[in-house]
Amino acid sequence: MSGREAHKSQSYTQAQLKSLLLHEVCRKEEASTWHPCRR
């Protein structure tokens, strides 16, 4: 695969990871009064 393709898939993975991490935080903060998923 070309360098540009690799970079694209890498940034896509980064975005997915960030999203997953956010949802993980939401699950951990479920008992808290606020978190991003509950707007």
Descriptive report:
This is Translational machinery associated 7. This protein has one helix and no strands.
Short description:
The protein has 39 residues and is mostly helical. The chain has one helix at residues 3-28.
User: What sort of overall outline do the alpha carbons produce when their principal axes are compared?
Assistant: rod-shaped
Largest sheet: none
The share of residues in helices is 55-70%
Oligomer: single chain
Output mean pLDDT.
68
Radius of gyration based on Cα positions: 15 Å
Helix- and strand-based class? mainly alpha
- Percentage of residues in strands: under 5%
Number of helices: 1
Residue stretches low in confidence (pLDDT < 50, at least 5 long) are none
